[in-house]
Amino acid sequence: MDLFLTLVSGVAWTVVYVEAIRVGLRDRTYAMPVAALALNFAWEATYAVGEFRAGVSPQGVVNVVWALADVVIIWTYLRYGRAELPGFVTRPLFAAWSVLVFGSGFAVQWLFLAHFGSHDATRYAAFLQNLLMSGLFIALYADRRGPRGQSLVIAVAKWLGTLAPTLLFGVVEDSPFILGLGVLCSVFDLAYIGLLVWGRRVAAVPAGREPADPEPAGLTP
């Protein structure tokens, strides 16, 4: 069961990254909220180094692959992200802001590591930033007034990729804290999936086309 849930999580998150790259390049934007992207990249880079210090491991290899995928997503953010901001944001200001966001991502991960130790820090940081990402995806939809730079594949894969470790660490390993965070992630993820489905249905209805009201009986000539 442990191996199965780990594989589900690994495959699902890989799908998230690959689809985020594809959608970002297609829509000429970035497909992951930048604060969550910064935390994700810092988590993967930090714990990839930690894993390899003890020797080559499957999780360490996965972390490196995910970190490399994040580098491509970061490139889409750097390439297209300034266009999402107000016009007064100059290139130097955008660069300074980006350094602050990504630097803060590493600082947060290292603070978790210093306080909780590697075993708990990997889990606590991952689920807390996952919950943040779930909420920020909904905010991204609202900010862009639609699904540009987003996809149902990303939403579903993220949900499954988080649900699997929620069951593993929250249920199998009996951690109420992680179980609670995982449940909250699922609530937000399912809400986001519902939002994307609803948006598709609304977009599929031609503008101005509404069902005609039936004429009252007895008024037809």
TrEMBL record:
<keyword id="KW-0472">Membrane</keyword>
<feature type="transmembrane region" description="Helical">
    <location>
        <begin position="124"/>
        <end position="142"/>
    </location>
</feature>
<dbReference type="InterPro" id="IPR039020">
    <property type="entry name" value="PaxB-like"/>
</dbReference>
<feature type="transmembrane region" description="Helical">
    <location>
        <begin position="151"/>
        <end position="171"/>
    </location>
</feature>
<keyword id="KW-0812">Transmembrane</keyword>
<feature type="transmembrane region" description="Helical">
    <location>
        <begin position="177"/>
        <end position="199"/>
    </location>
</feature>
<feature type="transmembrane region" description="Helical">
    <location>
        <begin position="92"/>
        <end position="112"/>
    </location>
</feature>
<dbReference type="Pfam" id="PF25129">
    <property type="entry name" value="Pyr4-TMTC"/>
</dbReference>
<feature type="transmembrane region" description="Helical">
    <location>
        <begin position="60"/>
        <end position="80"/>
    </location>
</feature>
<protein>
    <submittedName>
        <fullName>Uncharacterized protein</fullName>
    </submittedName>
</protein>
<keyword id="KW-1133">Transmembrane helix</keyword>
